[in-house]
Amino acid sequence: MLKAGRMSTRLRIRIKKLMDPELDLKLDYGELIRLSILIGFKMEDGWSELYEAIIDTGAHTSVIPRYIWEEICVEEKVDHSVQGIVPKKECSLPVKVSIIRGLLFDDELNHTNEVEFYAYCALDDKVPLILGFKGLLDRFAIYFKIGAGIAYLEE
Prior knowledge:
The chain has helices at about 20-25, 65-70, and strands at about 10, 15-20, 30-45, 45, 50-55, 60-65, 75-80, 95-105, 115-120, 130, 140-145, 150-155.
């Protein structure tokens, strides 16, 4: 429910259509879809540059590569490790579970209110910037109808 006098914010989500050339050679697999949005992070003296982040509706927690989180305000909580689709210890990713502050933006620079959320701060740069549910995506209504070219989130 909206507070009196407050309007909702709707941000257009980027829809990218990608191909996997290797898979496409094996099977006429077609297009792959990736949803993304821009995010800026709270720094000691203002806000970071905007980064393109993947909206991952299957991710319970956001993931931030080291080159980003080393430059922003991070409240580190605990060391941890996470695993993806391959449940082997050697395939786990060491992270620092942290509290981050950010603003989501669309391409017209419309933005959300400041959001504080948990994130896995990766100890490596070789991970994508992923936005997950814990404290972030769970705050918004997310709508996408890819065939019609429509995708947005609403606060």
